[in-house]
């Protein structure tokens, strides 16, 4: 653990079950009065007083086409977590910022509805009134029955700590992208299945209609068609058209490169089948009318149904999220989300240091096995190192230490992006490029100066009469047209919000909506945003002042229990969904149409009409530079085509749309390709929950007990020296609990052999054998009073040469002399450290230092090999000794510690090569001394 | 090569572990199921002989246990190379049959004899059973190879001679019930066999122009021992030594089979120093049985009961001894370079001794097991200094304990010493322990480490 333990420890200690070392209480007059507003033991830095929820949580919302924005589920699914926080209200907020959504529908130039494979948009927003800040991840799922075939969803990570959201943006974005990719993959699969069934229905319907028409024709020989016959013919035509359209949709959804999709079952056979069907299409029909539910019942052989024309049903039950995404994928997503929730628990400071820790540990792959219990298989070491190298300073979080790190690449992309812009010589884009560049810088440095916000963040600001602040957006692209929903929701969509969002004229209102920052890869900021930012600065500053104290010292509010289970949240979802069927709310969503659509549109046109060339260039670069990385970057291409849902009124689908649409079509493939590649990198992650957090308690307790041991026993130093120098320490005692406790505590000083568990045996009751000393370096041994125990003691005294013996009952220690300076620093009985976890970190930090010395010693070539042929071994040995003493500053027995660690390093390094390595018992012949209290 | 460095001797400590061997590594090997009583080693000679060809072959050794299983080990890493299954009862003898240097085929054989009255020949490279000989009337108790003649002999109740192709060339008649317990080669195509109290000299007649048959003839029986002969080894080309159960040590001339020297009094209670020559032994005879010999150019080292004795060939007397070297019978001893000696015992201990010339008696601490030089009384000891000055060959010697190896929990039956790889001890506690010099191993590991770094291209030498 390489970190500043003194600070970190304040942030991660929720309860003190044991406080063994009590300082003498201060006289009353000297004691500092308690923080007056502290309620139930909250610490004075808690910023959460303003927030209505007790800790961070994840909210999934949907913009239902029936009832508007509504929350679907939270993770953890525990009402205690979000408390009185108004989820409905917040859903409204977060759903309304997805103003760059794209659409699906009939583009003017094309005969059939087009699907867009679009990227998710990522927005950071804050609501200072609620004390809530959120990373919001918008995504769109396909639903045949929804308007425009899409249903917008969003996943939000809600925290009371603004800085946490901002600084962890990269990590959040990566994690949520995984979850989203998982959902979307499942959704595509489900959608394709749905389309197939629908096609069968239509085919069947056509057959039936055709037969009926024929019958009518035969019955009717008057030479003219009755109105009934005409109606039938029209109906038939509309069915034909519908078939073509659906076939086209199916083709589109399948054009999504599925080789990358894990578990995708779209096999080639199905494709052929579809094409066969496509050949049969001939007439047109009304595609909008579809009212067939129940398509998801999975029967092996699907029985087609007759589709009745004009059977519009608004009180239909919309599909639940689970239905939309295939249960398997849905569960996987929930697992990923709760993984995210675990991952980002706790205070920002804690997260950052642990990220730095992990990142640095990765680099120390040669030595970190010795004392770190952090063992994680990661084959992308190189990427990690890159990210660390590119880190300008330590205050910047090591972005995505666990996953791929896009930051260096983002920087690269900006550079190349700029140059390409210059070659195009379009002034506006130049500006945009600059802006983007600055944004990147700022995010890199993660500074929070208001000036920076002035430059870039405010541009994206949305202001409204509400207290929503958009803290940042990543270029967003998603297919958003009309949303369908299960309408358990009571919050009606406010027309005002809609207006303020949909219209790109954004003005600062009296309310506290602030865009605090945009993500580095922000693609385009509408021109009209710029006019608004000067006034936004003030707001931002005042905001910053308001929260000044709270920003830095937010205590973690997340209790460490891992009680929430996925099933719980699933159940909750289900119950919500059950209550949500058949609410005729369609009129609600129609209210949503913008009040000043024309104006909006012209603005957007101005933006949209310019870029196609640049898109293309950028796109190429993405493929050249990062074939694997970062779907969200490539999705910039589509951001221009993103239109708010409210502009999808067919009357506004004007000529400009054609341009954007063609470019959109061009990019949909490449974009989807890139995003699919990105999804593969994320595929392996879900459901892998790190066990790290759960061991925190263990660490704390071990640290506490070790501290206690150090204070209690004056001979703690030689005991610890024994452990560090690889001499087995036997802890002898009658009481198993006490022995176990001490063994667990002392285990933090035991170097491991390799990546497996530490060589510690907590409790042994049989006489020790020589093999035990080979296997274990720390043994808890039962002292038995009976004659049987004599054997144990006999064996112990026989092998006393190889062991140090700590007798807990008699409070004695038999072990070699120690006169070094290392252990006193490691285990100072007068230390001011009082908390177990702090001490644990202190130990880890000292041991890391020690490891680096051992590393130096091991890998210095001239120390171990003669520099020339005639050099004697004695000369080499004396060089080693002087290196250890002078360069590493080791005295007396400290040398042995480093030598032992060096041996372990050598063995470990050699082990990587094939070949058997027998464990060996290594010992020094040194006399032992008996210590007593 | 120093395998165990002796640094000091802590007088304060009463335990028997006051030795400061600097560092040692102990590698525990997977055990045989039963106690391990026999080992053999090869590879050193082999490696030298075929330097270009098999130099890479690791030094190996085989261990045979009472469970009838033979394991072949890599002496460097302690890796188990082969497991030879075939015998149903305990192994009584094991020996390697090196290939002839002239021979093209460098196939090395292992011969094992077992209480199941069979001898099995193994291929030491593959572990394959080459042949199994089961025509014995009795258990073969000893095997020996006469490399000069390219034959091997098996000794049981009779003595058989075999060639490399495992044909029985000739055999003696039934010799005795006890059977041959030891067998050594002596010059003039003769072998000495110890059968009970008797030493029997056989001469081997190789085929000549006259007769194409091999033959083995009993030449002489030597009846000088009063009790069963327990040990028999060659001292040099001209003499061999035998030791009996009641502590008789006889050095024989290998050419004319006469007694060169006779030493039988290994019991020397201090009070009766003056009458040492005539003392009848009142101890359990167990205490003076001679279990094992080892020798160098000057001395014969004998494991007598619990003690160790050094018999000087020139002076024809015991020059140093340690009467209670171990708590129990010493089972095996071996000579190290630097006048050092290793012994192992039934009590599970392995100890290292050094034969030192005594310089200053007064300054030397007197250990509990202190012994005096044979033939010198207390009076002599006090007058040691002037004596030494006057008389060159009166230099007194002592066996000093310089280290012990604690690890086995049961009788240590046998050990093997490898010049460069340390020491292998085999015990009845089913363990084989490989003892190594920690400092040397550490150096070797560093060497390998940098080799590996270089292979990986990770080695950057700063200028």
UniProtKB/TrEMBL annotation, chain A:
Cellular localization per UniProt: Cytoplasm
Broad class of the protein's primary localization: cytoplasm
Disordered: region residues: 268-292, 678-700
Keyword terms: Autophagy, Cytoplasm, Guanine-nucleotide releasing factor
GO biological process, one term: negative regulation of gene expression
A GO term from the CC aspect: chromatin
GO MF terms, alphabetically ordered: GTPase activator activity; guanyl-nucleotide exchange factor activity; protein kinase binding; protein kinase inhibitor activity
Protein family per UniProt: Belongs to the SMCR8 family.
UniProt protein name: SMCR8-C9orf72 complex subunit
Species of the source: Callithrix jacchus (White-tufted-ear marmoset)
From TrEMBL, chain B:
Listed PROSITE patterns: WD_REPEATS_1, WD_REPEATS_2, WD_REPEATS_REGION
GO molecular function (one): GTPase activator activity
GO CC list: guanyl-nucleotide exchange factor complex; lysosomal membrane
Annotated localization: Cytoplasm
Domain of life: Eukaryota
GO biological process assignments: autophagy; regulation of autophagy
WD repeats: 84-132, 323-363
Keywords: Autophagy, Cytoplasm, Repeat, WD repeat
Entry-linked PANTHER family: WD REPEAT-CONTAINING PROTEIN 41, WDR41-RELATED
Protein role: Non-catalytic component of the C9orf72-SMCR8 complex, a complex that has guanine nucleotide exchange factor (GEF) activity and regulates autophagy. The C9orf72-SMCR8 complex promotes the exchange of GDP to GTP, converting inactive GDP-bound RAB8A and RAB39B into their active GTP-bound form, thereby promoting autophagosome maturation. As part of the C9orf72-SMCR8 complex, stimulates RAB8A and RAB11A GTPase activity in vitro, however WDR42 is shown not be an essential complex component for this function.
Assembly and binders: Component of the C9orf72-SMCR8 complex, at least composed of C9orf72, SMCR8 and WDR41. The complex is formed of two protomers, each individually consisting of one molecule each of C9orf72, SMCR8 and WDR41. The protomers homodimerize via an interaction between C9orf72 (via C-terminus) and SMCR8 (via N-terminus). Within each protomer SMCR8 (via DENN domain) acts as a bridging protein between WDR41 (via C-terminus and N-terminus) and C9orf72 (via C-terminus). The C9orf72-SMCR8 complex associates with the ULK1/ATG1 kinase complex.
Protein name: WD repeat-containing protein 41
């Amino acid at each position: 653990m390489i970190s500043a333990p003194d600070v970190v420890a304040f942030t991660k200690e929720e309860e003190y079950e044991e406080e063994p070392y009590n300082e003498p209480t201060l006289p009353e007059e000297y004691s500092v009065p308690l923080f007056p507003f502290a309620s139930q033991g909250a610490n004075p830095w808690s910023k959460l007083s303003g927030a209505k929820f007790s800790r961070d949580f994840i909210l999934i919302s949907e913009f239902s086409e029936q009832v508007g924005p509504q929350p679907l589920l939270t993770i953890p699914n525990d009402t205690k977590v979000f408390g009185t926080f108004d989820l409905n209200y917040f859903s409204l907020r977060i759903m309304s910022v997805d103003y760059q959504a794209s659409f699906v529908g009939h583009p003017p130039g094309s005969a059939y509805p087009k699907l867009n494979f679009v990227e998710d948009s990522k927005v950071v927003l804050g609501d200072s009134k609620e004390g809530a800040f959120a990373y919001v991840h918008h995504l769109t799922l396909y639903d045949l029955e929804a308007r425009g075939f899409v249903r917008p969803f969003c996943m939000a990570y809600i925290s009371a700590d603004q800085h946490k959201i901002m600084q962890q943006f990269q990590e959040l974005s990566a994690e949520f992208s995984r979850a989203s990719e998982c959902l979307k993959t499942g959704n595509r699969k489900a959608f394709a299945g749905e389309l197939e069934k629908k096609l069968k229905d239509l085919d069947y319907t056509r057959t039936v209609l055709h037969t009926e028409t024929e019958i009518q024709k035969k019955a009717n020989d008057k030479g003219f068609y009755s109105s009934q016959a005409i109606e039938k013919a029209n109906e038939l035509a509309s069915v034909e058209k519908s078939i073509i359209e659906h076939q086209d949709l199916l083709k589109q959804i399948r054009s999504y490169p599925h080789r990358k999709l894990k578990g995708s079952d779209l096999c080639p056979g199905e494709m052929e089948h579809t094409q066969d069907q496509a050949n049969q299409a001939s007439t047109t029909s009304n595609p909008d009318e579809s009212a067939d539910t129940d398509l998801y019942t999975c029967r092996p052989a699907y029985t087609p149904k007759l589709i009745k024309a004009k059977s519009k049903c608004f009180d239909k039950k919309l599909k639940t999220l689970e239905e939309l995404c295939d249960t398997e994928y849905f569960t996987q997503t929930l697992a990923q989300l709760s993984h995210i929730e675990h991952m980002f628990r706790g205070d920002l400071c804690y997260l950052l240091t642990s990220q730095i820790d992990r990142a640095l540990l990765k680099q120390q792959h040669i030595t970190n096995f010795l004392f770190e219990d952090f063992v994680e298989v990661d084959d992308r070491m190189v990427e990690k190192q890159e990210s660390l190298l590119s880190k300008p300073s330590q205050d910047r979080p090591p972005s995505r230490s666990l996953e791929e790190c896009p930051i260096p690449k983002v920087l690269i992309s900006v550079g190349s992006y700029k140059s390409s812009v210059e070659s195009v010589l379009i002034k506006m884009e130049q500006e945009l490029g600059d802006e983007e560049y600055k944004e990147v810088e700022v995010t890199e440095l993660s500074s929070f100066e208001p000036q920076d916000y002035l430059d870039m963040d405010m541009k994206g600001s949305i202001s409204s009469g509400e207290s929503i602040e958009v803290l940042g957006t990543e270029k967003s692209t998603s297919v958003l047209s009309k949303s369908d929903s299960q309408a358990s929701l009571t919050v009606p969509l406010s027309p005002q919000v809609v207006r303020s969002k949909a219209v790109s004229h954004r003005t600062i209102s009296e309310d506290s909506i602030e865009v605090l920052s945009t993500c580095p890869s922000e693609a385009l900021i509408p021109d009209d945003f710029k006019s608004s930012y000067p006034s936004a600065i003030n707001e931002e500053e005042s905001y910053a002042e308001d929260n000044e104290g709270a920003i830095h010292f937010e205590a973690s509010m997340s209790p460490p229990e891992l009680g929430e289970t996925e099933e719980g949240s699933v159940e909750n979802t289900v119950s919500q969904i059950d209550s949500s069927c058949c609410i005729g709310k369609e009129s609600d969503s129609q209210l949503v149409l913008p009040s000043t659509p024309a104006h909006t549109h012209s603005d957007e046109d101005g933006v949209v009409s310019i870029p196609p060339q640049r898109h293309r260039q950028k796109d190429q670069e993405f493929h050249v530079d990062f074939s694997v990385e970062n779907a969200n970057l490539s999705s910039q291409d589509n951001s221009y085509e993103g239109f708010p849902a409210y502009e999808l009124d067919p009357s506004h689908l004007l000529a400009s749309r054609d341009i954007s649409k063609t470019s959109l079509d061009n990019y949909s493939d490449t974009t989807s390709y890139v995003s699919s590649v990105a999804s593969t990198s994320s595929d392996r992650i879900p459901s892998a929950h790190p066990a790290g957090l759960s061991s925190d308690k263990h660490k704390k307790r071990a640290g506490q007990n070790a501290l206690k041991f150090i204070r209690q026993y004056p001979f703690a130093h030689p005991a610890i020296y024994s452990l560090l120098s690889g001499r087995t320490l036997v802890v002898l005692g009658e009481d198993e609990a006490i022995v176990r406790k001490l063994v667990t505590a002392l285990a933090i000083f035991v170097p491991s052999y390799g990546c497996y568990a530490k060589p510690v045996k907590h409790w042994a009751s049989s006489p020790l054998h020589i093999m035990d000393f080979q296997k274990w370096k720390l043994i808890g041994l039962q002292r038995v009073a009976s004659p049987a125990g004599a054997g144990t003691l006999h064996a112990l005294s026989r092998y006393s040469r190889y062991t140090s013996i700590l007798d807990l009952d008699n409070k004695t220690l038999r072990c070699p002399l120690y006169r070094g300076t290392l252990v006193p620093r490691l285990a100072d009985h007068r230390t001011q450290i009082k908390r177990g976890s702090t001490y644990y970190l202190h130990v880890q930090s000292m041991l890391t230092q020690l490891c680096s010395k051992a590393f130096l010693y091991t890998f210095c070539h001239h120390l171990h090999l003669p520099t020339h042929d005639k050099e004697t071994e004695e000369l080499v040995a004396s060089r080693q000794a002087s290196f250890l003493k002078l360069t590493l500053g080791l005295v007396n027995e400290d040398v042995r510690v480093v030598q032992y660690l060096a041996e372990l390093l050598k063995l470990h390094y050699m082990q990587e090569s094939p070949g058997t390595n027998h464990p060996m018992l290594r010992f020094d012949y040194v006399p032992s001394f008996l210590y007593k209290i | 090569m120093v395998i165990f460095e002796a640094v000091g001797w802590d007088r304060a400590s009463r335990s028997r572990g006051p030795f400061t061997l600097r560092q040692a590594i102990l590698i525990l090997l997977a055990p045989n199921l039963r106690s391990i009583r026999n080992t053999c080693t090869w590879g050193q000679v082999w490696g030298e002989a075929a330097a270009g060809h098999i130099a890479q072959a690791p030094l190996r050794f085989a261990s045979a246990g009472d469970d009838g299983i033979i394991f072949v080990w890599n002496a460097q890493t302690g890796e188990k190379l082969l497991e030879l299954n075939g015998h149903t009862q305990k192994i009584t003898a094991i020996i390697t049959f090196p290939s002839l240097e002239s021979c093209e085929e460098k196939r090395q054989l292992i011969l094992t004899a077992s209480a199941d009255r069979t001898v099995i020949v193994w291929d030491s490279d593959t572990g394959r059973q080459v042949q199994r000989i089961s025509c014995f009337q009795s258990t073969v108790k000893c095997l020996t190879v006469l490399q000069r003649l390219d034959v091997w002999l098996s000794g049981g109740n009779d003595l058989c001679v075999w060639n490399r192709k495992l044909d029985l060339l000739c055999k003696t008649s039934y010799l005795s019930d006890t059977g041959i317990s030891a067998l050594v080669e002596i010059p003039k195509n003769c072998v000495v066999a110890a059968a009970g109290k008797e030493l029997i000299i056989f001469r081997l007649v190789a085929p000549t122009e006259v007769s194409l048959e091999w033959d083995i003839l009993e030449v002489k029986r030597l009846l000088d021992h009063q009790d069963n002969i327990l040990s028999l080894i060659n001292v040099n080309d001209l003499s061999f030594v035998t030791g009996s159960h009641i502590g008789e040590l006889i050095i024989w001339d290998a050419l004319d089979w006469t007694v060169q020297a006779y030493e039988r009094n290994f019991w020397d209670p201090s009070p009766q120093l003056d009458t040492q020559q005539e003392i009848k032994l009142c101890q359990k005879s167990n205490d003076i049985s001679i279990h094992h010999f080892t020798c160098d150019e000057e001395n014969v080292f004998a494991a007598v009961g619990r003690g160790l004795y050094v018999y000087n060939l020139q002076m024809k007397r015991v020059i140093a001894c340690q009467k209670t070297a171990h708590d129990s019978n010493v089972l095996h001893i071996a000579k190290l370079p630097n006048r050092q000696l290793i012994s192992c015992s039934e009590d599970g201990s392995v100890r290292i001794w050094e034969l030192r010339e005594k310089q200053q008696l007064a300054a030397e601490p007197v250990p509990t097991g202190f012994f005096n030089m044979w033939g010198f009384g207390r009076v002599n000891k006090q007058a040691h200094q002037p004596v030494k000055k006057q008389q060159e060959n009166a230099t007194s010697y002592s066996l000093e304990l310089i280290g012990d190896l604690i690890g086995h929990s049961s009788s240590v039956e046998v050990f093997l010493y490898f010049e460069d790889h340390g020491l292998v001890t085999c015990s009845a506690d089913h363990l084989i322990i490989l003892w190594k010099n920690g400092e040397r191993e550490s150096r070797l590991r560093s060497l390998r480490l940098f080799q590996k770094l270089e292979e990986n291209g990770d080695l950057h030498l700063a200028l």
